[in-house]
Amino acid sequence: MAKTLRIKLVKSTIGRKPKHRATVQALGLKKLHQVVEKQDNPQMRGMIEQVSFLLEVEEI
To answer: What is the pairing mode between strands 35-39 and 55-59?
Structure first.
């Protein structure tokens, strides 16, 4: 079974670079403290790494 990541937006995207805002949106996060579950793969890990300072990530 593939691993899943629980991703939570813990800091606002206001005033961030457009590329960072687009990455957060691509992860499916729109509101502060919103949580999404995504499959663990290299593409997701790369996006998470780009904006790791805005997120909280948990493996489930």
So the answer is: unpaired
